[in-house]
Amino acid sequence: MIDIQVFHCNMLDENCYVVSDDSKQAVIIDCGAYYSEERQAIERYISDKELLPVRLLCTHGHLDHCFGNGFIERTYGIRPEVNDADEYLISNISGQARDFFGLPFNEPTPQVERYLLDGELIAFGHHQLKVLSTPGHSPGSVSFYCEEEGVVFTGDTLFRMSIGRTDFEGGSWQDMLNSLKQVLAKLPHDTKVYPGHGPQTNIGEEVAVNPYFR
To answer: Alpha-carbon distance 177 to 154, whole Å?
Structure first.
């Protein structure tokens, strides 16, 4: 069984997840920790649970999901993994901060450890996550699916009764619809959805009620 702890981060209330099992190995998904208290909360949780973070996974390269990448590298020695189509985003977090928010963000951006491939399996502890290519919000957006536990981390592709924007650079409405209908909708309907923002949901409820699946 896996433990999933969510941390609400930065000015956009982004969901960062620390996912672990009884092996004590953990993966960190979308570390958007911007403020010091957010980083301290993540570090305290990992320390209190005696976890060993082994992977830093990014559903996509937008800054609100990556503010904490440098903090994670400095603290745990692991670097971000992202689909290569979002390399242009994750390598320019400071530029995104300036362009989106007018914020100075001068922390060094960690080098990408490796690029995620559609269908590959990411192992940690006694579990694995399958990378699902779900572009639309960004060209390299991916979701992480744990079939054994029936959970999927969807980043900004799917929210409860909503979806991510497609009007940013590299976004695509057609790709988003394909990701929803041809990838996520085909998961078992009892699959729990852990989105990049907002509350949890499940695939069956979204397919039945979310207007973007029609």
So the answer is: 14
